[in-house]
Amino acid sequence: MQVAVIGGSGVAGSYAVEALRRDGHTVREVSRRTGVDVYTGEGLQEALADVDVVIDTLNTTSTRRAAVTDFFTTTARRVQCAAEGGDVDHLVLLSILGIDRVRGYGYYDAKLAQEAAATAGAVPVTVLRSAQFHEFPGQLLERLSLGPLAVVPHIQSQPVAARTVGEHLARLALQRPGGIVELAGPEVHDVADLARRLARARRQRLCVVAATAPGRAARDMRTGALLATDSTTIDGPTYGDWLASADAHQPPVAPSPVASRTRHARSQP
User: Fold this and answer.
1) Whole-angstrom Cα distance, residue 6 to residue 4?
2) Is the four-CA dihedral 106, 268, 7, 225 of positive or negative sign?
3) Fewer CB within 10 A of the terminal residue: the chain, N end or C end?
4) Tens of pLDDT along 103-141?
5) Which fold has domain 2-134+161-186+228-237?
6) Are 52 and 87 in contact, with CB atoms under 8 Å apart?
7) Nearest-5° angle of CA 107, CA 110, CA 114?
8) Mean pLDDT across the stretch 186-197?
9) Do the beta carbons of residue 11 and residue 162 sit within 8 Å?
10) Domain ranges within the chain, ordered by starting residue
């Protein structure tokens, strides 16, 4: 099978590429590194020619509501249009678990708009709503550390390894389109606690301070809106097992979607 992975050099995208190639599929990585700008559409139609399935793992580090909504809805429409023109059979879109239960967070509202734009087209779509990656605390430490201090927000999460997410994306690509699928890890944690554990494991001299952010969205994230439900698929490893693996010591590729305050970019978390 021919599969195109948009954002294939990002965290989850790279693991999806690895899983697909391991199983003998032909994979085409689609990104600005390969000469494709999905936002403008430059090179996209050619990149999806003769492709059976497209996996979309695009992300943006902006959290400004207007900018992020424009990015996600524009790229979703571009991908749908190019996929339809190239006779693609199936789209798989990476999204975030719990975004429909967090009130007033611009990034999550934009992801919902992306899902709507993607599924409004002619090509059938499967949406994978994943919990935060095990890699997420490390991304926060990269961005939120100032000298020996890192201020990390209280977020209740049921994190899952990005490698596991990539494997599920690859698996879904080979199945019939199936609406919305949810994925989370086996344990519930406070992200600030995970950041402390990661700093200790990496022997970083950091004091991690847990912050309670104001507002409805932050309260929803603290009180379980991002956790698994009865319909969520649970898959390991645990955070402790991941922390003991080689994956935990890979350099961060791109910021995770939650709590990012950096500039607009076009890559996968």
Assistant:
1) 6
2) negative
3) N
4) 999 999 999 999 999 999 999 999 999 999 999 999 999
5) Rossmann fold (3.40.50)
6) no
7) 135
8) 98
9) yes
10) 2-134+161-186+228-237
